[in-house]
Amino acid sequence: MSVHKDAKRITTQVLQEMKHNGEKIAMLTAYDYSMATLVDQAGVDVILVGDSASNVMAGHETTLPITLDQMIYHAASVVRAAKRALVVVDLPFGTYQGNSKEALNSAIRIMKESGAHAVKLEGGREVRESIERILSAGIPVMGHLGLTPQSIYKFGTYTVRAKEEEEAIRLREDAALLDEIGCFAVVFEKIPAGLAGEVSRAIHCPTIGIGAGGDCDGQVLVVHDMLGITQSFSPRFLRRYLDLGDQMYNAVQQYVSDVRGRDFPNADEQY
Known about the structure:
The chain is an alpha/beta fold.
């Protein structure tokens, strides 16, 4: 059921070694203690406390509304569960763009108040100053290029990014920049597989793909999506490993039926 209790803690150095050795990195999201315990024990290398919590936990249409306090709450819950995985936390919208001092303060709050191991933020050259300032404080940073959901209103669509040559060139340059300034990994979201593979081979740090093909150094999915708990979201890149939503629905229906029919609790289920 669980990873050996002496399993070595995954660090940014371990991820670098995995890339060097050609070992793929498995990453999933989690937002609470119970789910993170399962994900960690099952052997996931990196747990992302994603701002996708805004969608799957809070029911917002976009990732924009979630606050720093809410991200810290989710992150602290996950950190208490993770015995092996590296825990990375998204800096939410509005806590790092355009003000590197605020970016550093946001990252410090996440690290101090949640106990997480690293932060993730979206963008390339436009957030360089924020990334460098966070790195200067000794906080590891994961980058995120391609489709950046916090910029959804700028894009106006969740379609594949970097299909046109101009955007592909910018992505290559931004990935090289993030690698050069010291990001320990970069997420590529919804970009052509060929481009993702090319850039993954060209840069030193590991790349994590979501809808970016099999040549990235690792993969990430939202846990609620891959377990089939959320059912309205089904992009091409998503593989559902369970239809847990249907099973949970049926179980709850059965419970309601058993209570109403006086079947639960039975004689063995009481004192």
